[in-house]
């Protein structure tokens, strides 16, 4: 059994249709990166797939959610605040990193990063309080947790990650990494942790997916299963399912056009079928994907996407891929 797109595999950026978006929204990292990889013809682990489906059907916190819920929309504050940094944007600096500090993320204290003024309005103040900025001016993506704005374009954070756009985006501890400057928590790929609106818009206009793999925030991983590529570590004290880094995908035989999905939901579902999702974090409740966070001061989605946009799917549509 293999995982493949239904029918012929579409070009990532096919010829433009009338009214289509003309310029693809920028994606970082090299063309051969895990981030941009597809799961076409990937082999399926039938034993792991059966275990996964049973686990998702029986875990108490998964009841009522037979599909990935999408966070960060409307009044839900558990998405990923995301911004694109440009040369015209102000420089933000990190005053203090209370977690792991090294020369790889020290640049955020000295040089800083470029980001728009409205970043402070997007900080959620939740226990995670994340922030992801794709700084195209500096050529890297930064990801923070427990963000607090403590001054004029100054923040304090618990953790800080930096991944350089000209690389393959992998943490330096991963044997497949090609840039010693890249550093993230347990090897997570920062840009995989957010569903961007500009990528949704491009996918709708051109009948494509998001163009990259997604990170799944699973209801509970299993510490004893360890970790695998692209991750370099695992959370402790977890007794659920899956190694961190284990990759899942919607099986090839699912006709996504018959699942009653909205245009935005269909783009995400195509992504889950064409590129899959990897276990990267524990959700603390039912399993989720995270959208670009909106707040009252920073509206993003309107009626285009909601927390139940993948309701036409079920966990039985998913397969676990061999490592």
Q: What layout of secondary structure does this protein have?
A:
Blueprint: E1 2-3, E2 42-43, H1 46-58, E3 69-71, E4 82-85, E5 91-97, H2 107-110, E6 113-114, H3 119-122, E7 131-135, E8 140-145, E9 148-151, E10 154-157, E11 159-164, H4 197-206, E12 214-218, E13 247-250, H5 263-274, E14 277-282, E15 288-290, E16 318-320
Parallel strand pairs: 3-15, 4-7, 5-10, 12-14
Antiparallel strand pairs: 1-2, 5-6, 7-8, 8-11, 9-10, 13-14, 13-16
Description:
This protein has about 325 residues and is α/β, with parallel strands linked by helices. The protein folds into two domains: about 30-75 and about 195-320, no CATH class; about 80-190, no CATH class. The protein is built from five helices and 16 strands. The chain has a four-stranded mixed sheet with strand order 4-7-8-11, with no helix packed on it. Strands 6-5-10-9 form a four-stranded mixed sheet. A hairpin with a 2-residue loop joins strand 9 and strand 10. Helix 4 crosses helix 5. It is globular, with a radius of gyration of 19 Å. The two termini are about 15 Å apart. Mean pLDDT is about 90; it is low at about 1-20.
Short précis:
The protein is α/β, with parallel strands linked by helices.
The spatial strand order of the largest sheet comes to: 4-7-8-11
Quaternary organization: single chain
Strand runs, count = 16
Average of the residue pLDDT scores? 92
Global shape: globular
Low-confidence stretches: 1-22
* Proportion of strand residues: 15-25%
Tell me about the largest β-sheet. 4 strands, mixed
The domain count comes to 2
Class from secondary-structure proportions: alpha/beta
Termini separation comes to 15 Å
Helical amount among residues, as a percent range?
10-25%
| CA-atom Rg in angstroms | 19 Å
Number of discrete helical segments = 5
SSE run: EEHEEEHEHEEEEEHEEHEEE
């Amino acid at each position: 059994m293999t995982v493949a797109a239904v029918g012929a595999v579409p070009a990532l950026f096919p010829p433009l249709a009338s009214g289509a978006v003309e310029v693809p929204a920028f994606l970082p990292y090299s063309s051969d990166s895990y981030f941009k990889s597809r799961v076409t013809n990937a082999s399926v682990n039938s034993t792991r797939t059966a275990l996964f489906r049973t686990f998702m059907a029986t875990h108490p916190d998964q009841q009522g959610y037979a599909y990935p819920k999408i966070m960060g929309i409307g009044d839900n504050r558990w998405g990923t605040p995301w911004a694109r940094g440009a040369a015209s944007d102000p420089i933000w600096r990190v005053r203090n990193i209370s977690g792991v500090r090294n020369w790889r993320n020290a640049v955020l204290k000295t040089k800083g990063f470029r980001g728009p003024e409205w970043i402070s309005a997007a900080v959620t103040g939740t226990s995670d309080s994340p922030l992801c900025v794709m700084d195209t001016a500096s050529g890297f993506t930064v990801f923070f947790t427990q963000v607090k704005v403590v001054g004029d374009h100054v923040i304090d954070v618990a953790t800080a990650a930096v991944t350089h756009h000209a690389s393959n985006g992998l943490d330096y501890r991963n044997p497949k990494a090609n840039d010693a400057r890249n550093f993230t928590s347990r090897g997570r790929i920062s840009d995989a942790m957010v569903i961007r609106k500009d990528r949704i818009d491009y996918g709708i206009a051109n009948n494509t997916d998001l163009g990259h793999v997604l990170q799944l925030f699973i209801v509970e991983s299993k510490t004893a299963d360890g970790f695998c590529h692209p991750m370099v570590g695992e959370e402790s004290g977890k007794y659920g399912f899956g190694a961190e880094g284990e990759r899942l995908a919607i099986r090839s035989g699912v006709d996504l056009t018959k699942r009653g999905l909205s245009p935005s939901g269909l783009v995400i579902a195509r992504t889950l079928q064409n590129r899959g999702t990897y276990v990267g974090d524990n959700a603390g409740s039912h399993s989720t994907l995270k959208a670009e966070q909106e707040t009252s001061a920073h509206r993003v989605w309107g009626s285009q996407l909601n927390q139940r946009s993948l309701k036409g799917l079920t966990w039985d549509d998913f397969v676990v891929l061999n490592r």
